[in-house]
Amino acid sequence: MISKIENKLDIGSRVLLLAHGHTGNNVFCTPTVRFLKKFYPETTFDIVALTKASSEVFENNPDINSIYVLDSKRAVKKLARNYTTVICLNPKSENLLDGTTVNIMNVPPLPTGIHHADHMLNQIASYTNCDLHESDRQYQIQANTAMIESILIENKIEKDEILIGMHLGCARTAIHGWKFFYKNRASHQKLWPLDKYITLGKMLLEVNPNLRIFITGTKNEIFLGKQFEKEVPRTINLIGETSVSDIVGILNKSNLFLTQDCGVLHVASASTVALIALFGPTNPIATGPYPMWLNRCVIKKDSMLDIEPDEVAELAKQILNASLH
């Protein structure tokens, strides 16, 4: 059900936003949350994330009053009774609102040829009749700078050293760890092989001795970090040690970040870092870096196995040379 009032949407004084259980999908929601708060500054916006990990996207967000982590229809419906309006930001979460009697706004399923974040933002803007500007098209995640300062000190990183990050895993490895990786990694369309990340790391170190590589991931991906760290000298292994806000803080001080189509790619897009995103059969138009600045590049092939470390290394060198000179 879509509710629209002439000239401007009347959403009431308290609004519940229903998000998703995946980190990347919740990152897509943040421009819309910012847009709503900009045009409805007196409205209280609370949000529901379906998992604790994905709720980190919204921590300390000044546009959000309270964050709830709920995953059952009963709990969501009970909470929704306390609000004048519920805005469902993800079509896959709509079933949690079945039978709810409060005013509901739904974002329809994603069409082809548009980024997830743009689709959501455009839809909400059309409901509200409020003007949408290009400055609204950016992610909003609060950065924690404390960890990067400790990393610089603990690893004795000098000002002239180049800091490059890599995220080796994906949503499946983050949740299921080595059990998924060793049984099903070959069938996963988004995952770039670990041995290619290792080869890339060695190539980059050969090009510039002032380069330091750090790797990120969840505790379930520690096994990936151990193998990478064993093969690539002077690796800064942050797997299992960072929150979403930590990653944004670290990347704001980094020179480059490389990963495949995953939640951390979208988290990285909330920072100022240059990006190289690796895509196989999934669509970078829908889930690529956002917004697509000049220092954010995509390598797209039919299969992730078709992407070779040497072409990624060459693109990395070009980006670094452009930023350092």
Can you give me a brief rundown of this structure?
The protein has 325 residues and is of the alpha/beta class. The chain has helices at residues 23-39, 52-55, 73-80, 116-128, 146-154, 171-176, 178-184, 194-207, 222-231, 244-251, 263-268, 284-287, 309-324; strands at residues 14-18, 44-49, 67-69, 85-88, 103-106, 162-167, 211-216, 236-237, 256-260, 275-279, 296-300.
Please give the largest β-sheet. 6 strands, parallel
Terminal Cα span: 54 Å
Mean pLDDT across the residues is 90
Low-confidence stretches: 1-7
The gyration radius over C-alpha positions equals 20 Å
CATH level 1 name of the largest domain: Alpha Beta
- Written as H for each helix and E for each strand, in order along the chain, the element string is EHEHEHEEHHEHHHEHEHEHEHEH
Number of domains: 2
Q: What's the architecture of the largest domain, going by CATH?
A: 3-Layer(aba) Sandwich
| Number of helices, where a helix is a run of at least 4 consecutive DSSP H or I residues | 13
Secondary structure category: alpha/beta
**What's the total count of β strands?**
11
Report the principal-axis shape: elongated
Strands across the major sheet, in which order?
8-7-6-9-10-11
In CATH, the topology of the largest domain is named: Rossmann fold
Helix content percent band? 25-40%
CATH superfamily of the largest domain: Glycogen Phosphorylase B
| Percent of sequence in beta strands | 15-25%
